[in-house]
C-alpha cells in the first residue's frame, strides 16, 4: 500500500446516531483531504462531528496542490465548466429543435395545400374525361342511327 492511501476499516457514528459519510475537503487549506463528518451540518441541526482520515499535507505538497487548484486543475471547477458547456449546447440544440419544428409545421401546411391542389386538379381532369367520353358516346350513337 502506498503512503498516500489510508485503510478505512471502521465507520464513524456521530453524536446524532447516524453513520458518518466519507467526504472530501474542497477548501484551499485542505484540498482533496478526506474526512468523516456528520450527515447534517451544524447549521442544519447536526452535531458537527468531524474527523480527518488523511494526514495533513506537507508544505511543499500543499503549495503544489494550491497551485493546481488556482490554475484550474480543480476537478470540480473542470466539471462545472463542462456542465456549463453542456447546458449551453443543450440550449442551442433546443433552439434549433424549435426552429426545425416550426419549419416542419410550415412545410406540412404547404404539403396539405399541394395535396388539395393536386386532388382538385384530378377532379377537374376527371370531369373533362367524363365530358369527352359523353361526347364520344353521343357522337357514336348519332352516327349509328
Automatic annotation (TrEMBL):
Regions crossing the membrane: 125-142
Domain GRF-type, residue spans: 14-56
Segments forming a coiled coil: 76-117
Annotated keywords: Coiled coil, Membrane, Metal-binding, Transmembrane, Transmembrane helix, Zinc, Zinc-finger
GO-annotated molecular function: zinc ion binding
The protein's name: GRF-type domain-containing protein
Keyword Cell membrane: no
Lineage of origin: Eukaryota, Viridiplantae, Streptophyta, Embryophyta, Tracheophyta
Domain of life: Eukaryota
Pfam families referenced in this protein's UniProt entry, alphabetically: Zn_ribbon_GRF (PF06839)
Amino acid at each position: 500500500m502506498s503512503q498516500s492511501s489510508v485503510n478505512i476499516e471502521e465507520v464513524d457514528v456521530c453524536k446524532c446516531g447516524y453513520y458518518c459519510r466519507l467526504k472530501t475537503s474542497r477548501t484551499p487549506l485542505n484540498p482533496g483531504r478526506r474526512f468523516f463528518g456528520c450527515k447534517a451540518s451544524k447549521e442544519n441541526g447536526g452535531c458537527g462531528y468531524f474527523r480527518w482520515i488523511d494526514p495533513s499535507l506537507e508544505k511543499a505538497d500543499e503549495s503544489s496542490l494550491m497551485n493546481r487548484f488556482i490554475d484550474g486543475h480543480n476537478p470540480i471547477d473542470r466539471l462545472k465548466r463542462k456542465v456549463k458547456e453542456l447546458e449551453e449546447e443543450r440550449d442551442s440544440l433546443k433552439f434549433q429543435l424549435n426552429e426545425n419544428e416550426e419549419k416542419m409545421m410550415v412545410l406540412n401546411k404547404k404539403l396539405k395545400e399541394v395535396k388539395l391542389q393536386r386532388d382538385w386538379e384530378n377532379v377537374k381532369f376527371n370531369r373533362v374525361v367524363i365530358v369527352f367520353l359523353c361526347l364520344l358516346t353521343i357522337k357514336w350513337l348519332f352516327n349509328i342511327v
